[in-house]
Design a protein that fits this description.
This protein is mostly helical. The protein has 14 helices and no strands. It has a single domain, classed as Tetracycline Repressor, domain 2 (Orthogonal Bundle).
Length: 230
Amino acid sequence: MASPSFSDIIRMLDEVTVEGDPAAPAVKKRLRIIKAATEVFLQLGYRKASVDAIAQRAGVAKGTVYLYFKSKADLLLFALGAEKREYVDALRPIFSSEVSPEQRMAAYLSEAVPLLLRMPLTCRLLRGDREVSAVFEELDADVSARYHAMQTEFMTRLIEPFASLHGWSAREVEERARVLIALLYASGTLVDEHVRAGLSAERFGEVFSSLIVDGLRAPSSPSPLHEGKQ
């Protein structure tokens, strides 16, 4: 499996946000609803935000919202994806074909915490906002599966180039991808200055990145996690 290109990243995010030609009238309306939902969620919180308020903000009928989205929970998930899509251009340089897998992983992780500061809706989720977190229990199973599959595919492709250095199987690569995704979710608390203990978001991201990348480099001795497996 090749490392992801920037076009791969856009494709993955578009699969859970655009779903069609961005220039098409129906897709434009869908994106307008997502933008309105993001604004209402940030203003009122998930529970207090109503589909009526979102429809009014988007300038469409309430029934139109349900033509595009199965539920308010689905809308939140698509809003999160659209927010990432808006800021993903900051990552474009690290997906150049001239960047090595190690440099790519290091740069991606270094950017993770600073980038969160620019994504308020994602921040609320990663900070453990109970309203937002609870939404994942309400999601349509197909939508949720697609979103998680996208995340896992992306992270797996970032880690896979290091597999041969450690003798990891495909399953072990995917396990590491899932753990790293969980760590990045936990990093939402790190946007708070008191948690970072005086480190800037940029410096915190650099140190976090070095810890992960050092562990991905070729080991001087077999990993005990791999050594004990059959």
